[in-house]
Design a protein that fits this description.
single chain; alpha+beta; four-stranded antiparallel sheet; three-stranded antiparallel sheet; 27% strand
């Protein structure tokens, strides 16, 4: 089966915060600098720095399913979960920090930890994940 890439769903309010915060800092800084306030350049630098850091930790944000597992990529952060390690998959609206750009999320539990992600098509993602898990070879005990 071919790998499937699921982009993160993006909540409008979160996109607005991520975009408007650095733009506001830069805008205020430019205004202050143009009115003769030397501190304006600090605001410009801070806004540009915020934009770079936010982009580095959010772009790209997607989830790749293949026959071996799930690869989570959100900016510089990456995780890989093997299909056989997944114990439970649950739709959730958990707002905890996670590699997700929406609170409409999927909780993935393994034996050692939980992951929160927000695929754009949540139902299709869960369906495909369960299908890929069911096609894993069954271990037999002898």
């Amino acid at each position: 089966m071919q790998p499937s890439i699921y982009p993160s769903k993006v909540d409008l309010w979160l996109a607005a915060v991520l975009i408007l915060a650095p733009i506001t800092a830069v805008g205020m800084g430019v205004y202050l600098a143009l009115t003769g306030e030397a501190e304006g350049w600090i605001s410009v630098f801070t806004g540009c720095f915020m934009a770079v850091v936010m982009a580095a930790f959010t772009l790209p944000c997607h989830y790749t399913l293949d026959d071996r597992g799930l690869h989570i990529r959100c900016g510089l952060m990456e995780d890989h979960i093997l299909l056989q390690d997944i114990r439970q998959v649950t739709p959730t609206f958990n707002p905890l920090a996670a590699p997700a750009l929406s609170i409409r999320r999927v909780r993935i539990d393994t034996a050692h930890r939980s992951f929160l992600i927000s695929p754009r098509n949540r139902e299709r993602f869960i369906e495909e994940l369960e299908q890929r898990q069911s096609s894993l070879p069954k271990l037999t005990s002898e």
